[in-house]
């Protein structure tokens, strides 16, 4: 197997994990006692806290700032079997010019596509757009493939020019308590990423409990993930505010423990400006304002962008327009 | 400057139509006082005068009691439970319809954040009327004893911390069981009770069933001492509660007293720590700590004390203190100058006795009465701030090593109103709840209220229960007729 990255430049995730856990050999037992030693999450209390954060009233100048910030945090996404070069080029055009009526509108952080569309997206975005290309990899969305296939999938996307890789964890292994397998997969994919930033999709809808979300978050960070991400968008529920809050607590506590920042990306199901602002409030009050930057927080979304643009136009003109006054490059096929 | 500043988001005051002055609500209408004087109700956030209110004289109280007696002997006493229930349902619905008006007025007069008056006080007040409306025609099945019947005229004196909610806790069970009422709201927060009088008129409640007399201590004393009052219900300080108990000793009057508290909020090392921190915040900073069941003593297991303290202080840095009408305000104004002095005196004593003081350093408005969310660490049982009720946004942190020590410290207080337990261990919750001498024990939550759940204290926190079937029992008698 060849790797594009020199071995000494890769983070030696296992060595660091041994160090953090205080063990001489990283075993599943060691990982289990570490993850199960994390404080529990009380479901009722966590949901009440998230609901309370959702009642913040964000008006006027704060709303304006929040909308522009949210736009800049979007990973504009298309992940369909029916994706075509034309669809991806349309998505990239939208990323480059979100609002043709107002060229001061910020661009989203990235477009997010399947690995085989990376080259087309790179080409459409050009070199200076500052819009990244993110590719899903590792047998997205199920993750049910052999390790060589997952790594090949990752390397293919990186070699095609992906700036970011969105991998999925093996939820079966996680739920079976085989944390070491999940750890090794993430660490191996991270190494295969080279300079690309790695987002680790935990598929929280399949993990079900907040305790699992917390453990999966810590496991992903320990194995070297640059971002922890809620969902593929293919499983319901996708991102929710309480789940994202639990993840924000995890990255906050990880920073305390290691001095390293890890990003958070809720994906799927966030469609309105109002929802996006609730997430920003939660980022602000739970993780802290350092995360209020598209280097550290992203929204995985498609239709959210146009709702943010409608609100942005409303603030600029004082009147609501309508869906036909924002361009739509991802209409339904049916 | 913060990256994400929340712009002011004030709730509009326009929804409230305040009159310059108010009389007394006696026999279904607003009347002038006979020989009483007037006082002003101010907004504690700005010290602005909101309205002038009447201080009822003993003669006014006498008129109110007489009206209540006529209503009891007249239409209300003869009315079926089902019909009484209809009035209660009607009141509940009107409260919901006028919820925003009540929430704004409550925040103006009391200083509490609109987020709380809107999401807690007013919805819970309506819920109490709905709940008791359902009981009105089912009292025979409430297990209150054979031949249970109303006392007659009840006198009620309520505090300033939850003006409308305490009014609902008092009036709803009294009416459901067929009593008539003379009620006195607190002198610093009379306005929501006066607005409630309009609701009673709107609901067409027969005259005299509920009479609302405003005033201070002497008005309250006149109610307590009135010979034609059958039962008293009081919520307030232990000092005043004791005075009431002395006043009625040797009379036939019954009483329920909801008094002070110094609740322990107990955090074990296996607690869900982020939710426990929220529980600490809700326990003591909810309603500026003006809560009789507030979790004012934090008992934290020594092995996680530093971790909890660190997380708590980080969380408190995000609390927003300021304009009660701003929808993003978490902590509002202290209710009165007198209360602010009391809090200041006790916190100064805490410092003098050697506890370590910390506050979140937030800016405070220039006018009005304000106190920063404050935490004392290194507190001992002997310190005044661990023994006396501060009734403000001040938390005293103590530590313990074993469950037995936690119980001993939690119970080592003359009060016994509430307690909180935070642990992932179900068996420990049950054992602790059994050991704690407190009327309400919350597990992995704090300051949650529901009309179906009885609320009340042990020891110097008073006697009698409010809410649930236990609360109904306080408003009926099975004894001989007088």
From TrEMBL, chain A:
Keyword Lyase: yes
GO molecular function terms noted in the UniProt entry: deoxyribose-phosphate aldolase activity
Pfam families: DeoC
Catalytic activity reported: 2-deoxy-D-ribose 5-phosphate = D-glyceraldehyde 3-phosphate + acetaldehyde
Coiled coil: none
Pathway: Carbohydrate degradation; 2-deoxy-D-ribose 1-phosphate degradation; D-glyceraldehyde 3-phosphate and acetaldehyde from 2-deoxy-alpha-D-ribose 1-phosphate: step 2/2
Keywords annotated in UniProt: Lyase, Schiff base
SMART domains the record matches: DeoC
Keyword Lyase: yes
GO cellular component: cytoplasm
GO BP terms: carbohydrate catabolic process; deoxyribonucleotide catabolic process
InterPro entries reported for this sequence: Aldolase_TIM, DeoC, DeoC/FbaB/LacD_aldolase
Protein EC: 4.1.2.4
CDD domains: DeoC
Protein family: Belongs to the DeoC/FbaB aldolase family. DeoC type 2 subfamily.
NCBIfam families documented for this protein: deoC
Name of the protein this chain belongs to: Deoxyribose-phosphate aldolase
Gene that this sequence comes from: deoC
Automatic annotation (TrEMBL), chain B:
A Pfam match: Aldedh
Claim: Oxidoreductase is one of the keywords in the record: yes
InterPro entries the record matches: Ald_DH/histidinol_DH (IPR016161), Ald_DH_C (IPR016163), Ald_DH_CS_GLU (IPR029510), Ald_DH_N (IPR016162), Aldehyde_DH_dom (IPR015590)
Active site residues according to the UniProt entry: 258
Presence of keyword Oxidoreductase: yes
Entries under SUPFAM superfamilies matching the protein: ALDH-like
MF (Gene Ontology): oxidoreductase activity, acting on the aldehyde or oxo group of donors, NAD or NADP as acceptor
Keywords in alphabetical order: Oxidoreductase
PANTHER family: ALDEHYDE DEHYDROGENASE-RELATED (PTHR11699)
The name this protein goes by in its record: Aldehyde dehydrogenase family protein
């Amino acid at each position: 197997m060849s790797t594009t990255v020199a071995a000494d430049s890769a983070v030696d995730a296992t060595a660091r994990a041994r160090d953090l856990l205080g063990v001489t050999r990283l075993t599943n037992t060691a990982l289990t006692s570490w993850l199960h030693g994390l404080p529990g999450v009380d479901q009722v209390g966590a949901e009440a806290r998230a609901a309370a954060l959702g009642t913040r009233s964000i008006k006027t100048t704060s709303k304006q700032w929040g909308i522009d910030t949210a736009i800049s945090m979007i990973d504009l996404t298309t992940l369909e079997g029916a994706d075509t070069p034309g669809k991806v080029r349309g998505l990239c055009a939208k990323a480059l010019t979100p609002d043709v009526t107002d060229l001061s509108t910020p661009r989203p952080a990235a477009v997010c596509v399947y690995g085989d569309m990376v080259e087309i997206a790179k080409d459409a975005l050009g070199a200076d757009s500052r819009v990244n290309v993110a590719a899903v990899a590792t047998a997205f969305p199920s993750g049910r493939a052999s390790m060589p296939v997952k790594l090949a999938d990752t390397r293919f996307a990186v070699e095609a020019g992906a700036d970011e890789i969105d991998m999925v964890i093996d939820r079966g292994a996680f739920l079976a308590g085989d944390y070491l397998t999940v750890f090794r997969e993430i660490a191996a994919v991270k190494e295969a990423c080279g300079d690309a930033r790695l987002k680790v999709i935990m598929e929280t809808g399949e993990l079900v409990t907040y305790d699992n979300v917390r453990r999966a978050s810590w496991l992903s960070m320990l194995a070297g993930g640059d971002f922890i991400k809620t969902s593929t968008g293919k499983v319901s529920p996708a991102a929710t505010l309480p789940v994202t809050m639990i993840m924000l607590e995890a990255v906050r506590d990880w920073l305390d423990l290691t001095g390293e920042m890890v990003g958070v990306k809720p994906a799927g199901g966030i469609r309105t400006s109002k929802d996006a602002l609730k997430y920003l409030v939660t980022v602000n009050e739970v993780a802290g304002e350092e995360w209020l930057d598209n280097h550290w927080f992203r929204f995985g979304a498609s239709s959210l962008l146009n709702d943010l643009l409608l609100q942005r136009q409303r603030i600029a003109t004082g009147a609501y327009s309508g869906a036909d006054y924002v361009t739509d490059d991802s209409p339904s096929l049916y | 400057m913060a990256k994400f500043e929340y712009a002011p988001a004030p709730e509009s005051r326009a929804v409230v139509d305040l009159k310059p002055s108010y009389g007394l609500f006696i026999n279904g209408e607003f009347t002038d006082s006979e020989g009483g004087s007037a006082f002003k109700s101010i907004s504690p956030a700005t010290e602005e005068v909101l309205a002038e209110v009447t201080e009822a004289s003993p003669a006014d109280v006498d008129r109110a009691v007489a009206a209540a007696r006529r209503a009891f002997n007249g239409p209300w006493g003869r009315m079926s439970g089902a019909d009484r229930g209809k009035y209660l349902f009607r009141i509940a619905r009107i409260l919901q319809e006028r919820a925003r008006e009540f929430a704004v007025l409550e925040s103006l007069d009391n200083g509490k954040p609109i987020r709380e008056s809107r999401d807690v006080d007013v919805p819970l007040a309506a819920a109490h009327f709905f709940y008791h409306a359902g009981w009105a025609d089912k009292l025979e099945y409430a297990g209150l004893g054979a031949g249970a019947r109303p006392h007659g005229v009840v006198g009620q004196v309520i505090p300033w911390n939850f003006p409308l909610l305490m009014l609902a806790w008092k009036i709803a069970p009294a009416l459901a069981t067929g009593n008539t009422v003379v009620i006195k709201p607190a002198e610093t927060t009379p306005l929501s009770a006066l607005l409630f009088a309009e609701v009673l008129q709107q609901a067409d409640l027969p005259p005299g069933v509920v009479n609302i007399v405003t005033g201070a201590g002497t008005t309250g004393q006149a109610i307590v001492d009135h010979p034609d009052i059958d039962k008293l219900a009081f919520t307030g300080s232990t000092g005043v509660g004791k005075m009431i108990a002395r006043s009625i000793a040797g009379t036939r009057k019954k009483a329920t007293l909801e008094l002070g508290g110094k609740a322990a909020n107990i955090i074990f090392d296996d607690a869900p720590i982020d939710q426990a921190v929220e529980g600490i915040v809700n326990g003591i900073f909810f309603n500026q700590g003006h809560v009789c069941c507030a979790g004012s003593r934090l008992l934290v297991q020594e092995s996680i004390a530093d971790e909890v303290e660190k997380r708590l202080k980080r969380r408190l840095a995000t609390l927003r203190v300021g304009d009660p009408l701003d929808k993003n305000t978490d902590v509002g104004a202290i209710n009165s100058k007198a209360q602010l002095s009391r809090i200041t005196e006790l916190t100064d004593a805490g410092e003098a006795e050697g506890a370590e003081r910390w506050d979140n350093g937030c800016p405070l408005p220039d006018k009005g009465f304000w106190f920063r969310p404050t935490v004392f660490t290194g507190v001992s049982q002997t310190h005044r701030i661990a023994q006396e009720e501060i009734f403000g946004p001040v938390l005293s942190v103590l530590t313990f090593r074993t469950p037995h020590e936690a119980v001993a410290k939690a119970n080592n207080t003359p009060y016994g109103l509430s307690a909180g337990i935070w642990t992932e261990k179900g068996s420990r919750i049950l054992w602790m709840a059994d050991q704690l001498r407190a009327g309400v024990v919350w597990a992995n939550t704090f300051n949650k209220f529901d009309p179906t759940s009885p609320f009340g204290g042990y020891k110097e926190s008073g006697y009698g229960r409010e809410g649930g079937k236990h609360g109904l029992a306080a408003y009926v008698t099975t004894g001989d007729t007088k």
